[in-house]
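ok so I'm stuck.
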Amino acid sequence: MKTIYINKMLEAGCTVKILMADWFLQRHPRIGTDLNKIRAIGQYNIEMWKAAGMHLERVELIWLSDELDHHAVDYRTLAMDVSRKYTMERIAR
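replied:
not stuck anymore, here's the structure
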């Protein structure tokens, strides 16, 4: 479904950004914490999308870990603020 909708947006003239949430996979118990292995899994996803017919000419793939590294000061401040104001129960709701 993702391939169909991305291709429709591209046909309409949109530029699409896809966030590759590699940082969150570090919490998955079967995958582990090695970011290089997680990126390899992300590359397999990209190849799968290509095989399914997704046109990637105007698609920008953004890795979450890179974005967090570029904006570490802002992210840390925001994460600390959220952790002080909200409980895990409230965030889960």
